[in-house]
Design a protein that fits this description.
473 residues, four-stranded mixed β-sheet, four-stranded antiparallel β-sheet, 3 helices
């Protein structure tokens, strides 16, 4: 939207454009084609980007492009950077290292109007052909938000509640997809809302936790944290459990917003949805630690650390699950871990080179399996009864390279799997066979929400919300 507003409001539409982005402008960026198509309406002459840490020449959909090196030094005694000189119809690229006077030119790119408005070449675009393969899946309604949607949806009586990065919480009619009410916070929202009865609870990066009336969106109460609240709330027994970015994890009364207890020793920030199991609340943080708190008092029962110095390996994005006295988590370090729910002791912890688990997981309806999605796009079921990481179920699903951390959900014998390319997959719990697939976007998919009556609601990062209905073939 920003790019479109800039390009369509230039005083001189023929002005040469140089486009700079961190990522390569190819399928490594989900919406590369949206940016490329906008650029090609103008006099775009060059794309500059990084990400690959090397000096390289590329072409994206006919547009000359250059990757610049990182200023990290790797094995060299000093780092470096590029000086780009635009002069006389060319862009010259020279590498410079600190404390050295010499600059070495390694590339020269002509700058010119390519007249892309006259181009006839067809370039690669995402395919939606998979939707024709499964005609038993129909779109009931679609809603396109003006902003990104960075969290899952929730459902109550007659409505689907959605949040966006404009800070809005809004209700869509469950049957038609029409917006019924909107409440505006003062920050971006990346937390999935929770609903119980007449209450909707949602957190915002404006440092507040909100409770709204599900019938009207009217504010019922608000609780302030000291920093943005990115964690998703869990409502159980009229209590709201939620983690924030201020080192606190709170329990709040659902009916009046009174603080019931406050645990203030969380290392780094929380983004997950907590788990309530046998009187304890479980959650991870982006500080490599996983916590178990007494659900009634907020006192620390135990905490576990993966021992890594790299916080990016934290068990923070997965939704933990528990059964048979054990809690299960996965993390970007590609380890799956089973912990004793009462003590925090490791039951087993394993990394399998050919089963590269990441963050997407979920518990089967009969609690016999923990579903895990691998980075290679496969879905397995890990036994919850075994004393090691034992694969007890395998699906036929084969997705491309996968990074979506969104949780896996089973509902009425069907396992729903989100992807990082806007496609939902439905798998038969018993056989592992794929029942259907449907692609609504090319953006990362949030957790899928079953509605019952063979309907599901999907949402993606690029602001699309879709209700699907499916029937047996």
């Amino acid at each position: 939207m920003w790019l479109d507003s800039v390009l369509t409001n230039m005083q001189d539409p023929t002005m040469p454009v140089i486009y700079i982005n961190h990522y390569p402008q190819d399928s490594s960026l989900n919406n590369w084609y949206d940016a490329i198509d906008l650029l090609k309406k103008q006099n775009v002459q060059l794309i500059l980007h990084g990400h690959g840490h090397n000096n390289r020449r590329f072409t994206y959909d006919g547009i000359p492009s250059v990757m610049g090196r990182s200023n990290l030094r790797a094995k060299d005694p000093a780092g470096g950077y590029n000086i780009v000189t635009i002069e006389g119809g060319v862009a010259r690229f020279e590498e410079r290292k600190p404390m050295e006077q010499t600059q070495q030119q390694w590339l020269e790119v002509p700058l010119q109007n390519h007249h892309f408005d006259k181009e006839t070449i067809q370039y690669h675009r995402p395919s939606y052909a998979v939707n024709k393969v499964y005609p038993n899946v129909k779109v009931v309604w679609e809603y396109q938000d003006d902003s990104d949607i960075g969290a899952g949806t929730a459902t109550g009586k007659n409505v689907v509640v959605v949040t966006n990065t404009s800070g809005e919480v809004y209700a869509l009619d469950k049957k038609s997809g029409k917006r019924k009410w909107t409440y505006k916070t003062n920050g971006k929202i990346y937390a999935t809302p929770a609903i119980q009865g007449k209450y909707v609870v949602v957190a915002s990066s404006d440092n507040n936790i909100y409770c709204l009336a599900i019938s009207s969106g009217k504010l019922l109460w608000k609780v302030a944290a000291e920093r943005p609240v990115l964690g998703s709330p869990l409502i159980q027994d009229n209590k709201v459990y939620i983690g924030a970015s201020d080192g606190h994890f709170r329990a709040i009364s659902l009916k009046d917003g009174k603080l019931l207890w406050d645990f203030d020793q969380v290392n780094n920030f929380v983004v997950t949805k907590p788990l309530l199991y046998k009187g304890k609340v479980y959650f991870g943080s982006w500080g490599n630690e996983f916590y178990a708190l007494d659900a009634n008092t907020g006192e620390l029962s135990w905490k576990w650390s993966n021992g890594s110095a790299n916080r990016m390996f934290s068990p923070a994005a997965c939704y933990p699950v528990a059964t048979d006295g054990k809690v299960f988590i996965v993390a970007p370090d590609r380890y799956m871990t089973s912990l004793d729910a009462a003590t925090g002791n490791v039951v087993w912890r394993k990394q399998m080179k050919d089963i590269r688990v990441r963050e997407s997981m979920g518990l089967s309806a009969d609690s016999a399996l923990v579903y895990v999605k691998t980075m290679d796009g496969e879905v397995y079921g890990v036994s919850t009864a075994a004393d090691s990481m034992q694969l007890a179920w395998e699906s036929d699903l084969k997705l491309p390279y996968e990074l979506a951390p969104s949780a896996i959900v089973e509902h009425k014998g069907i396992v729903y799997v989100p992807s990082n390319s806007g496609m939902a997959s439905a798998i038969d719990r018993q056989s592992g066979k794929v029942l259907w697939k449907h692609k609504i976007s090319n953006g990362l998919m949030n957790p899928i929400m079953p509605l019952g009556k063979k309907r599901v609601v999907l949402s993606t990062m690029d602001g699309k919300v879709t209700c699907l209905e499916y029937s047996p073939e």
